[in-house]
Amino acid sequence: MIQVKHMTGSRRLIVNADGFGFGPGATQGILDAIREGGFISSVSVNANFPDAERVLELAKEFPHISIGVHLNPLAGKPCLPAHLVRTLVDDGGNFHNERFPDLLRKAKISKVELEAELDAQIGLVHGLIGARLTHLDSQENLHLDYWDVFLRLAEKWKIRQMRNNASLICLESPNPIRSRLTAYVTKPHVWVMHQYRKLQMGKARSAGMRMADRLITVGYAGLGGKSNCQTWEHVLDNLPPGTYEIYCHPAYPDQTLRRWAWYCDARASELALLRNTELRQRAQSLGIELIGFAQV
Hints:
Radius of gyration: 18 Å
Strand content: 15-25%
CATH architecture: Alpha-Beta Barrel
Largest sheet: 9 strands, parallel
Mean pLDDT: 95
Order of helices and strands: EHEHEHHEHEEHHEHEHHHE
Shape: globular
CATH superfamily: Glycoside hydrolase/deacetylase
Helix content: 40-55%
Number of domains: 1
CATH topology: TIM Barrel
Distance between the termini: 32 Å
């Protein structure tokens, strides 16, 4: 067990479960984690899968949970008829999945079709829960590659909260500052990317968007991911004063996830951790307030 440390200054954390609706396994996993663990404070919905309609159940049972749209032009089928978004789909009417980023860079994805599809995804969730819709983020954070579309849709739907993609790394390390320095020295391209994301987030704030101070990003310290309990304990212990977001993917791995997601089996381990009340209790003992996007 890690020794609990105490810091001065208010600390707030959004724990956002990505992938609600992304098949029955992800949807039920998120619901069970919220019901049993009480650590998750926010959810993002993959609107283009049938289980997304269970967001009604989520909204009714958990009025304190913020609900956003996990914009998704990668996995599954579009909300719109395939003939209206021809550049977004293959011959079987499915999204291009891992081919999408390359096709987008090569201008083989129509921005008009992309915007129409993502607009339909937001519209579906908004039609189900109305004003409970609080924020936007995206599958694999690829909205950073269609940034202009993302900001236009946020403005159209008057959604002012979003994920802050400016990363704060290595909080899972016993010595975050040393690990962060090592990571950036050994991977300078990561440092450049993170500086660019800070600039993007600054532009988003100038456009009226609200977000956490930083996004807690795990993995650069080389000590294990979010399926590891010690990772979460270190993150909570090392959380600086301010408002932060961290996302998670609790799920029962099923056929849908195995078909579309590269991150699959480890979701079961995340679910086991997040169904336990220990993380919520640890956050409380450290004076960390668990909040949703409505409080940003």
